[in-house]
Design brief:
This protein has 497 residues and is an alpha+beta fold. Helix content is 28%, strand content 25%.
């Protein structure tokens, strides 16, 4: 009874004692206001959410593929979706952004504004791009690699994006209300496939760096030379839900290790299946037209080597946006089915830690450096063994301007006994699986492309197999970087008590 009464009257860090109540209630109110109960006065839980429209102007280049057509049409709007959690002592912020990859300095600018406006420290704010391949650049316009130079000023869209993220978090904070929280997970295996394949002996597998690979990315559906996938998948969809104390859904964050889906016509802006998932969850929960609005969001897990193409076949044709709707609907229905089994808690402690981890930047060995010089000097009319030799020679040359080391943000949240890790790379699935297995938390998932993006993050074993994700300039940090990041995240999880 006392606990229920406390929930009804505590909405800030103060206990409100109303005079004029009956004698018995006055006595109870006096007890509640007595210093002996001050330790419980902060023991309340609140949550708030908001989504900010971040759709860019038409005309900018849509990035994520080998060509960058100008944006000519908006199929569906892009959003920065925010959730704020408050346990009475600490606040945590989770943000997903509909973009292929957001530069760290854009997120840093948003975090600085948030900290100045709200007092929430940057270490308690986790931001990540979803990895839709149908949005304009948030990493600077021009030569690849600008994001590695912190002194570069934000361009027009980057500045707009940082401001809209900060606006959204501040509004989510204004939307805080007494809430309860719960989480769970469900497997959706039918839409995740390892996109890297080992090929049968004798299959030509040249790469643009003058060598040959063992693993090939996207080898073609039904390719007769397929041998076996080069790695595993992770079918788990983890989800975190917050409800108002009257049962209204406030927000839901999901996490799935699926790269993106695609099927978007050239020149069209779309949030991909991440946006469709959010819309479908809202519909299934009958949460439209609420005030404040319900916010669903999908974060990208460890999907650096995962897509939803079944290379074993058969080939299935889908109309534009058809396949992503299929994926979004299946995942949303599975999550909502699990949603109804969530055991909610009225209060959980919130904690966060982050560090800057120093990693070495990769450099070409003497043999590769010689090959790059030869390719750069070769006339365009002369064909090489691989069609991308010129492209990679240029990218590797650009890396000469990169620093010798880079500091990346490694971040961990603890929400009750749930652990969330954040890694600023397109992270291979093996890394997420290892973190789940070794984490001291009861439940753990990893959000990739978080707090920045510094390229692909294969494991050392996958580096030995080669393939697109391991090529220098696609991968830019030392080959043992994943081991250092795993060790660092496990240490952070261990430090959160």
């Amino acid at each position: 009874m006392k606990q229920k009464y406390l929930k009804n009257i505590i909405h800030t860090n103060r206990v409100i004692c109303a005079p004029g109540l009956a004698i018995g209630l006055l006595f109870l109110a006096g007890l509640l206001c007595f210093p002996a109960f001050s330790q419980d006065a902060n023991r309340f839980f609140q949550a708030g959410a908001y989504k900010s429209n971040i759709t860019p102007k038409l005309g900018g280049p849509i990035i994520g593929n080998w060509d960058s057509p100008p944006a000519e049409y908006v199929h569906d709007e892009l959003f920065a979706r925010s959730i704020v959690l408050d346990d009475g002592e600490s606040k945590l912020v989770l943000v997903t952004v509909d973009n292929v990859g957001v530069d760290q300095k854009v997120f840093d600018a948003a975090k600085q504004t948030i900290e100045q406006a709200t007092g929430i420290p940057a270490s308690h704010v986790m931001m990540a791009s979803t990895h839709t391949h149908s949005a304009t650049s948030a990493r600077g316009v021009g030569d690849k690699g600008r994001e590695w130079h912190a002194s570069e000023p934000l361009d027009e869209y980057q500045a707009f994006l940082a401001s809209r993220i900060a606006d959204g978090v501040q509004i989510a904070l204004r939307n805080l209300e007494p809430a309860r929280i719960g989480w769970g997970s469900v497997d959706v295996p039918q839409h995740v496939f390892n996109r890297r394949w080992k090929m049968k002996p004798g299959t030509p597998t040249p790469n643009p760096l003058g060598g040959t690979d063992i693993a090939v990315m996207n080898p073609g559906v039904g390719n007769p030379n397929l041998l076996e996938p080069a790695g595993p998948t992770d079918p788990e969809v983890a989800y975190l839900s917050v409800q108002a104390i009257d049962g209204r859904p406030l927000a839901l964050l999901a996490n799935y290790s699926l790269h993106y889906v695609g099927g978007v016509p050239d020149g069209e802006i779309s949030a991909d299946y991440f946006g469709m998932f959010a819309d479908e969850v809202q519909e299934l929960l009958d949460a439209a037209r609420q005030n404040p609005a319900f916010v669903a969001m999908m974060s990208n897990g460890t999907s650096g080597d995962i897509n939803n193409i079944n290379f074993s076949g058969p080939r299935v044709k889908h109309p534009p946006y058809g396949k992503m709707k299929l994926v979004a609907d299946d995942v949303a229905r599975a999550v909502v089915k699990g949603y109804h089994d969530i055991v909610y808690q009225d209060w959980v402690p919130l904690q966060a830690k982050q560090v800057l981890l120093n990693l070495k930047v990769r450099r070409p060995d003497p043999e590769l450096a010689k090959f790059v010089r030869e390719v750069a000097a070769r006339p365009d009319s002369v064909e090489g063994r691989h069609r991308l030799e010129k492209t990679y020679a240029k990218r590797i040359k650009q890396m000469e301007t990169f620093p010798d080391t880079i500091d990346v943000i490694i971040q961990a949240f603890k929400i009750g006994d749930l652990g969330i890790g954040a890694i600023p790379f397109e992270t291979f699935v093996e890394i997420g699986l290892e973190l789940k297995e070794r984490s001291p938390m009861k439940n753990t998932f990893t959000i990739a492309l978080a707090n920045g993006l510094y390229g692909y993050l294969p494991t050392p074993e996958q580096h030995q197999l080669g393939g697109y994700e391991t090529w220098l300039s696609t991968n830019r940090v030392e080959e043992v970087a994943s081991e250092k990041i795993i060790a660092q995240l496990l240490e952070l999880f261990g430090d959160l008590d």
